[in-house]
Design brief:
This protein has about 50 residues and is an all-alpha fold. It contains 1 helix and no strands. The protein starts with a helix and ends with a helix. Keywords: Signal.
Amino acid sequence: MQQSFCIVLLPLFLCLLLSIIFVSHCYSDTGNSVLSASVTVDSVELQI
């Protein structure tokens, strides 16, 4: 019983870990793009 529980729990944990890494990577990408967009908007406003 204990061994089968570990066999079920291990892939679940790996999937959870991969999804957390994927989500954090996506959020960091969108954060960087939003940051660069705001910087370009600031530079355009400064030129005007």
